[in-house]
Design a protein that fits this description.
This protein is mainly α and 56 residues long. β1 and β2 form a beta hairpin. 70% of the residues lie in helices and 7% in strands. The protein starts with a helix and ends with a helix.
Length: 56
């Protein structure tokens, strides 16, 4: 939170602008979610293939 608050600029009426450091946090989270989605897709494909093979 402290890192995000450092991106506030102005006095009485502060404006928010992305700073390099705080922006890396949600970008890292997004990359992590994408990796997990890819892993789940691989697992789903393998499981579906297993079930299809077991049914024959």
């Amino acid at each position: 939170m402290r890192a995000v608050l450092s991106c506030l600029h102005g006095g009485e009426d502060p404006a928010f602008g992305w700073c390099t450091g705080p922006r890396a946090v949600p970008e890292g989270e997004l990359a992590d979610v994408e990796r997990r989605i890819a892993a789940l897709r691989r697992s789903r494909t393998a499981l579906a293939r297993y079930l299809a093979d077991a049914g024959t």
